[in-house]
């Protein structure tokens, strides 16, 4: 019952839009429902990137710790979006913290499980890449804008 | 065109080095203005600068400008206290397309100080709410401390007929809102891109990225309007300081329809 429910949820999640039913079924085998209360961390910098999350509800703050200022949030991720791309790239370690700003409901994807399945089925792997590369590019572009500090005194 | 004498009635801090002046004319009523227009304000003995009007066009008793203290003239203006004199010429320029937006969804995208020239348009949109479709305000700034017109934003948010999303580039402490550049809010906003009108004001780089995101969402180039900023001196189309290719910002802008200046914005050097 849980698998059928997750299968439907995965198919309806924006991130997996367009993924065929068979692939959804394969991916679903690596998925489970999770929830985080406000203030709870999904993961911390330095930990093993063994999961990533598809957000169904709520907002997650991506933070880095600055000894002079405390936790600095550099991005928030919301409903329909994905938290975590480090699971794709060795050494599979998180480089920032991810904290639930409010109640978060998500689908946790077992990264090892999914990587194995992508290795075994390159078509599935390509479908994953097609979805994650735009996320990476989009975050790179927005990070560039943030670095430019366009709202500074000359902005 | 000689400046008229005005006096400061009130001065309020609206962010780091950002001040809003409420001024009154010494020789009569304030000049009527259209949302998006600007006045040339003179700090006597220092200089004259173009400042967008940031107040309510429907309130004839108040003339409001929001100034960032950057150079000598703007810094002198920002320091004016109640009763201090300043000079005023204007209003000048082409404003926001309020009539062209009637009957359509309106997406207002503001970055940093860019919210100031857009505030009169927001006042007009909300005062004549029934004439427009969905209204969305997307506002981005550097940090929570630099959010301008905070009380007003909170008041507007309590209305049920405007969607407001605020984002900051980074945050520390107890900020619970969006963090990320303002362009990331565009794909998530509820408006009909096929018929919406977009009003955009902010740093030019931010405007270019916002335009790209609007285009990706399906908004046509002739439905996007931006407020450009250049070094304006005479404000009446004579000196040429604000020339931008074939147009003069003071005379043909500062609000431009994007498709009319697309090639100018794309040029690296003009």
Q: What attributes does this structure have?
A:
heterodimer; A: 155 residues; alpha+beta; Jelly Rolls; four-stranded antiparallel beta sheet; 36% helix; globular; B: 270 residues; alpha/beta; Elongation Factor Tu (Ef-tu), domain 3; Rossmann fold; 2 domains; seven-stranded mixed beta sheet; six-stranded antiparallel beta sheet; 31% strand
Quick rundown:
The complex is a heterodimer of chains A (155) and B (270). Chain A has 155 residues and is of the alpha+beta class. Chain A has helices spanning 2-12, 21-28, 111-120, 122-148; strands at 31-36, 41-43, 51-57, 60-66, 70-77, 82-83, 97-100, 104-110.
Write structural notes for this entry.
The complex is a heterodimer of chains A (155) and B (270). Chain A has 155 residues and is an alpha+beta fold. Chain A has one domain: Sandwich (Jelly Rolls). Chain A has four helices and eight strands. In chain A, the strands form two sheets. In chain A, strands 1-8-3-6 form a four-stranded antiparallel beta sheet. In chain A, strands 2-7-4-5 form a four-stranded antiparallel beta sheet, with no helix packed on it. Chain B is an alpha/beta fold. Chain B folds into two domains: 4-92, Translation factors (Elongation Factor Tu (Ef-tu), domain 3, Beta Barrel), CATH 2.40.30; 106-227, 3-Layer(aba) Sandwich (Rossmann fold). Chain B contains six helices and 16 strands. Chain B has helices spanning 72-78, 115-127, 150-158, 204-217, 249-252, 258-266; strands spanning 4-15, 18-25, 38-43, 47-52, 63-68, 85-92, 106-111, 135-141, 163-168, 171-172, 178-179, 197-201, 224-227, 243-244, 247-248, 255-257. The two termini of chain B are 29 Å apart. The A-B interface holds A 59, 61-62, 66, 69-76, 78, 101-102, 138, 141-142, 145-146, 148-153, 155 and B 17, 68, 70, 111-113, 140-142, 146, 167, 169-173, 175-181, 183-184, 188, 202-203, 205-206, 209. β5 (70-77) of chain A pairs antiparallel with β10 of chain B.
């Amino acid at each position: 019952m849980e698998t059928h429910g997750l299968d439907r949820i995965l198919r309806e999640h924006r991130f997996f839009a367009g993924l065929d039913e068979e692939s959804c079924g394969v991916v679903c085998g690596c998925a489970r429902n999770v929830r985080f209360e406000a203030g709870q961390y999904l993961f911390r910098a330095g930990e093993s990137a063994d999961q990533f999350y598809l957000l169904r509800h709520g907002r997650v703050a991506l933070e880095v710790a600055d000894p002079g200022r405390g936790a600095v949030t550099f991005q928030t991720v919301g409903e329909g979006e994905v938290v975590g791309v480090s699971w794709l790239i060795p050494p599979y370690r998180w480089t920032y913290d991810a904290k639930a700003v409010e109640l978060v409901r998500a689908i946790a994807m077992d990264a090892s499980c999914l990587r194995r399945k992508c290795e075994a089925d390159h078509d599935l792997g390509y479908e994953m890449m097609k979805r994650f590369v735009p996320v990476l590019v989009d975050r790179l572009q927005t990070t560039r804008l943030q670095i430019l500090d366009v709202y500074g005194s000359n902005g | 065109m000689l400046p008229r004498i005005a006096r400061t009635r009130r001065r309020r801090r609206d962010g780091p080095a950002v001040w809003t002046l409420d001024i009154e004319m010494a020789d009569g009523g304030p000049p009527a203005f259209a949302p998006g227009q600007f006045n040339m304000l003179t700090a006597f003995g220092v200089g004259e600068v173009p400042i967008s009007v940031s107040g309510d066009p429907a309130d004839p008793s108040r003339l409001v400008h929001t100034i960032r203290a950057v150079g000598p003239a703007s810094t002198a203006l920002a320091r004016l206290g109640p009763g201090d004199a300043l000079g005023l010429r204007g209003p000048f320029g082409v404003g926001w397309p309020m009539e062209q937006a009637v009957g359509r969804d309106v997406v207002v995208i503001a970055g940093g100080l860019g919210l100031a020239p857009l505030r009169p348009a927001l006042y007009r949109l909300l005062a004549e709410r029934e004439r427009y479709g969905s209204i969305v305000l997307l506002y981005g700034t550097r940090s929570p401390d630099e959010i301008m017109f905070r009380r007003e934003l909170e008041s507007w948010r309590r209305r049920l007929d405007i969607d407001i999303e605020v984002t900051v580039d980074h945050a520390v402490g107890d900020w619970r809102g969006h963090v990320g550049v303002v362009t990331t809010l565009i794909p998530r906003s509820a408006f009909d891109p096929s018929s919406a009108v977009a009003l955009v004001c902010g740093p030019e780089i931010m405007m270019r990225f916002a335009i790209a995101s609007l285009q990706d969402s399906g908004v046509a180039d002739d439905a996007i309007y931006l407020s450009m900023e250049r070094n304006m001196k005479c404000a009446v189309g004579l000196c040429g300081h604000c020339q931008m290719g074939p147009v003069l910002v003071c005379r043909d802008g500062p609000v431009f329809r994007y498709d009319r200046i697309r090639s100018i914005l794309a040029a690296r050097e003009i």
